[in-house]
Design brief:
about 600 residues; alpha+beta; Penicillin-binding protein 2a (Domain 2); Beta-lactamase; five-stranded mixed sheet; 18 helices; elongated; disordered C terminus
Length: about 600
């Protein structure tokens, strides 16, 4: 930049020659220089003001947008979570086969205290005792007035309780966010779902873990973040489960039983549509296990899976079906039923005198112990054991419950010929109602082994063949006659062609022997018998029917009417319409083709 001199020599000489003052030239040039500098500084200042104005404008825009976002969002208190307290509390829902929620999560709060921050510790303890009646106020006072700096008061509280604690006005009482497990249907399907509780806990979160049932069996999958909260879908139908529980509870009370169990299963897939064990419990408030006495008396005990019983005459169809499959007999073969049947010191008798001979079909219809035992003698212990093994009676049921392995069948120590004879009519081998339902489904669905499941399956997963389709059809025909003509006449449900077999087994004493007046009454059924869709097993513990002049305990008077009412209530819910039953001959011909 060229700088103009304040006293240019040419102008100075010219001014002196003309008699002017040269200093005026210097003052004028100095003034011009100052004006130029002033204009530069003003331009620079105006630029800075413009930039500052743009910055202020942008800041106000950002603040306005943020304030608008906060105003339109839900109110929430800020949370500060330390790295040490990061606990994954997310747990997927459990639904029924139609997507209806069986178990979900609920946001709630925990209550804890920091005594050093409390103003009136004794008053706070007394006020908390009014809000939570189950709290030991004296113990809480000792904790508050002692040396402790942190005290858990309640692991989960309701919004109403939270507000009541707020109203105490004690700064040392604080809340932590919680996610608890909620079962919106209460006791419904309690033994299937099991329950959940807190695992690792922190002030700001807690880990929800399964403690029993499906919740524990699929605990890792339900807590897996990779599943992105995808619900676990079960095979049970919520509506059918509710109807089954309602009917079974009424039947248990009507028949004066101490307990009951029921299993409703799809015959061709093994999917369990409903499974009930009574008495039951509310998984939202799961009771503690018994520490003394018989665990079977606890409401936590799942009679359908864990309860192993001698299931009586429901086993007779297995002996008949195996004899048919081996070609030893046909449905009309005559068997000697003259009694009693002696084996050493043992005597096998029938409930009634059925004469000297019955056909195989009549043995099942009339429920002859002697006739079934003679069939078992022809089969032999080795073949009988192998057949029962193929139906799943020698191992715990492979169902998705952590309690299933405890339901191990009780087998004879020495599987002798007398064991073979008594097992053929349901004594000497104890199994669960779910074992029985699985075996009936495998035998009657066409003869293909199925494996029970509590998960919804898109496609059937058939196992190996246990009997031929012809034998399966013949067994269904026999069971249909049991309901139409035999011991299960109260099981008839018009339009649904129910087939089934009763079983009344004396209840064993804890120290050996059997009670004279206590039984396990069971009815195992299939419907429709000509086109098996579902298998239903109903079992009552120590039932007694008192409407007649004498107490009646047999399954025909106790378990059968309960099962019939259950079929009557659930069949329409399952989408089964009443239909005309085809003739027996047509059914057999169709199965044999």
């Amino acid at each position: 930049m060229t700088r103009t001199p304040l006293r240019p020599l040419a102008r100075i000489l010219s001014a002196r020659a003309s008699g002017q003052n040269p200093d005026c030239i210097e003052r004028e040039n100095l003034r011009k220089r100052h004006e130029v500098q002033r204009d530069k500084l003003r331009g620079r200042a105006e630029g800075r003001l413009f930039v500052l104005g743009v910055c202020f404008f942008c800041a106000f825009v950002v603040i306005g947008v943020r304030m608008g976002h906060l105003a339109s969002s839900d109110p929430a208190e800020p949370r500060s979570i330390g790295r040490a307290e990061l606990i994954s509390a997310t747990r997927a829902d459990i639904t029924d086969r139609r997507g209806r929620v069986l178990a979900t999560n609920l946001s709630t709060h925990s209550l804890y205290a920091q005594p050093p921050m409390m103003v009136d510790r004794k008053r706070a303890a007394r006020e908390l005792g009014k809000i939570f009646p189950d709290i030991d106020v004296k113990r809480l006072e000792r904790q508050f007035t002692g040396d402790r700096k942190f005290v858990w008061v309640k692991k989960k509280i309701s919004p109403e309780q939270m507000q009541a604690v707020h109203d105490i006005g004690e700064p040392g009482l604080m809340f932590g966010p919680r996610e608890m497990r909620l079962y919106p249907n209460g006791k419904l399907a309690a033994h299937i779902l099991g329950g959940a509780s807190f695992g690792r806990e922190g002030v700001h979160s807690a880990e929800v873990i399964g403690t029993a049932g499906i919740e524990k069996a699929f605990d890792e999958a339900l807590r897996d973040p990779a599943r992105a909260g995808e619900p676990l879908q079960l095979s049970i139908d919520l509506t059918v489960q509710a109807a089954a529980e309602d009917v079974l509870y009424g039947g248990m009370k009507l028949m004066n039983a101490k307990g009951a169990a029921a299993v409703l299963m799809e015959a061709r897939t093994g999917e369990i549509i409903a499974m009930v064990s009574l008495p039951d419990f509310d998984p939202n408030d799961r009771p503690r296990p018994l520490t003394t006495g018989d665990q079977a008396d606890s409401p936590l005990f799942n009679r359908a899976v864990q309860g192993v019983y001698e299931l009586g005459s429901t086993f007779k169809i297995f002996a008949a079906a195996q004899a048919l499959e081996l070609g030893l007999v046909n449905p009309e073969t005559t068997i000697n039923t003259k009694g009693p049947l002696a084996w050493g010191k043992h005597r096998i008798r029938d409930f009634h005198n059925y004469g000297n001979a019955l056909s195989v079909t009549e043995i099942i219809v009339k429920s002859s112990n002697i006739g079934t035992a003679r069939l078992a003698m022809q089969i032999g212990e080795k073949r009988q054991r192998g057949f029962l093994d193929s139906l799943g009676f020698l191992e715990p049921v492979p169902v998705e419950l952590v309690e299933a392995p405890t339901g191990r069948p009780l087998l004879p120590r020495n599987w002798s010929e007398i064991s073979t004879m008594t097992i053929s009519y349901g004594h000497g081998l104890s199994a669960s109602p779910l074992h029985l339902a699985t075996a009936y489904a495998s035998l009657l669905n066409g003869g293909t082994r199925i494996y029970p499941t509590l998960l919804k399956r898109e496609q059937p997963q058939p196992g190996p063949r246990v009997v031929s389709a012809r034998t399966s059809a013949q067994a269904r025909t026999m069971l249909r006659k049991v309901v139409a003509e035999g011991t299960a006449s109260f099981g008839e449900v018009e339009g649904y062609a129910v087939g089934g077999k009763t079983g009344t087994a004396d209840k064993p004493k804890p120290r050996g022997g059997y009670y004279d007046d206590k039984v396990i009454a069971t009815f195992a059924s299939v419907f429709p018998a000509h086109d098996p869709k579902y298998v239903l097993v109903v079992s009552l513990d120590e039932p007694v029917e008192l409407s007649g002049p004498k107490p009646r305990r047999t399954a025909g008077w106790t378990a059968v009417p309960v099962a019939a009412e259950m079929i009557r209530r659930t069949a329409p819910l399952l989408g089964l319409r009443p239909s005309v039953e085809p003739t027996v001959e047509a059914a057999i011909i169709k199965a044999s083709n």
